[in-house]
Amino acid sequence: MTGPVSNSGPGQDPNALRRAYEASCEIVRSRARNFWYGLRLTPEPKRSALYAIYAWMREVDDLADAPGPTVSDRRASLEAFRDRTRRVFEGDGGSDSSGCEWWPAFRDVVDGYPIEPEPFEEMIQGQLLDLEWTTCRDRRSLEHFCRLVASTVGTICIRIWGHDDDPEVLVQAEARGIALQLTNVLRDLREDLERGRVYLPSDELERAGLEMDDLLGWRDPDRCGRFMRDQVVRARAHYEASEGLESHLDPSCRGTSWAMCEIYRGILDRIDDDPARAVRERVGLGSLRKAGIAWKARRMAKSSRTVPSESRG
Predict the structure, then answer these.
(1) Whole-angstrom distance, CA of residue 40 vs CA of residue 116
(2) C-alpha count within 13 angstroms, C-beta hemisphere, residue 216
(3) For every one of its 313 residues, what pLDDT tens digit does the chain have, with 9 covering 90 and above?
(4) Among 263, 228, 243, 249, residue whose Cα is nearest residue 300
(5) Cβ–Cβ under 8 Å, residues 258 and 304
(6) How far is Cα 269 from Cα 275, in angstroms, rounded to an integer?
(7) What are the CA-CA distances from residue 201 to residues 64, 198, 208, 283, 311 (Å)?
(8) Residue 266: which residues within 8 A CB-CB, separation 6 or more?
(9) In this structure, are residues 115 and 179 in contact, taking their beta carbons and an 8 Å threshold?
(10) Is 201 helix (H, G, I), strand (E, B) or coil?
(11) Which of 48, 68, 112, 161 has the fewest CB atoms within 10 Å of its CB?
(12) Interior angle at CA 118, CA 116 and CA 119, nearest 5
């Protein structure tokens, strides 16, 4: 059972707020299995707060990827959603959920935690950029996109989990977000191409003597394997740059951060072990492996002593 972060802000109906948190939880459970395994390790009320944040981000994704509307229509929907989000941070979020039952929970989290509007703005900017995305010019362009759509998530999460205010934590959270998104890029190669998007840098493909059709058809196994493993190395560099992030977080939430990282790092390891698998199927971890990661994360949380944190809860 999820629970509200606060006793409901001005104009918030307690029953509607409870339903909003329950709706947020269901969105994560049904649509984000990897995040579900990680986020449910977070103690309440921070767990419910993160569910509400994910619901907001899922809505942004859905608006950007809606199959029916034109690009112009999707852009207009994202801009309208950005305006609505801005009003929440300005204290004028209104009570109308407008089809989003989870919206009161999002308002409650904004009121109850020290999160800033900038990461939400950047996330929407990343989705607007993605509307026009077809190919990726170079690594710099890819990592800029990763910062917009993934490092922003890390920035928000650490504010809810709580951290020790060390300046390094923001650098590590940004690196972690890039690492996770680069893993997504390798995991979703075929699915993204079906949507008309290629995120692998064109200049790196060209230097490898490959085109996307060559890679997806695995026409030159040695060359394709070398290219994919090079991509794995580049992603691993960002995981390494994020090492130590958990040491800055509230002890009760370190397990959550670690577990989510381990799940995605495990996916990257599987791609490294069999690069061709990434073009045959969507690589993932089995339930037993995820359960093992969750068990270790729970032990991590139980063995940690409580230290001051910047977040409530």
Answers:
(1) 24
(2) 14
(3) 344 455 445 556 788 899 999 999 999 888 877 677 677 788 899 999 999 999 999 999 999 987 778 999 999 999 999 999 999 999 876 555 567 889 999 999 999 999 999 999 999 999 999 998 999 999 999 999 999 999 999 999 999 999 998 999 999 999 999 999 999 999 999 889 888 899 999 999 999 999 999 999 999 999 999 999 999 999 999 999 999 999 999 998 998 899 889 999 999 999 999 999 999 889 988 888 887 887 788 777 666 543 333 333 3
(4) 249
(5) no
(6) 10
(7) 22, 8, 11, 21, 38
(8) 285, 289, 293
(9) no
(10) strand
(11) 68
(12) 90
The residues, ordered by sequence, that sit 6+ positions from 125 with a Cβ below 8 Å of its Cβ are: 148
Contact (CB, 8 A) for 148 and 60? no
The 8-class DSSP code of residue 148 comes to I
86 forms beta bridges with none
Per-residue tokens: 287: 């339930």
Task: Find out whether 294 and 285 touch, Cβ atoms under 8 Å.
Answer: no
Distance CA 240, CA 258 (A): 13
Domains and CATH numbers, the chain: 14-115 (1.10.600.10), 133-313 (1.10.600.10)
Nearest to 55 by CA among 35, 80, 72: 35
Distance CA 124, CA 148 (A): 8
CA 274, CA 268: separation in Å to the nearest integer? 10
Query: Which phi and psi angles does 88 have, rounded to 5°?
Result: -65, -45
Report the interhelical angle of 71-89 vs 103-112 (nearest 10°).
40
Q: Looking up tokens 């809606």, which residue turns up?
A: 66
The residue assigned the tokens 């890029």 is 185
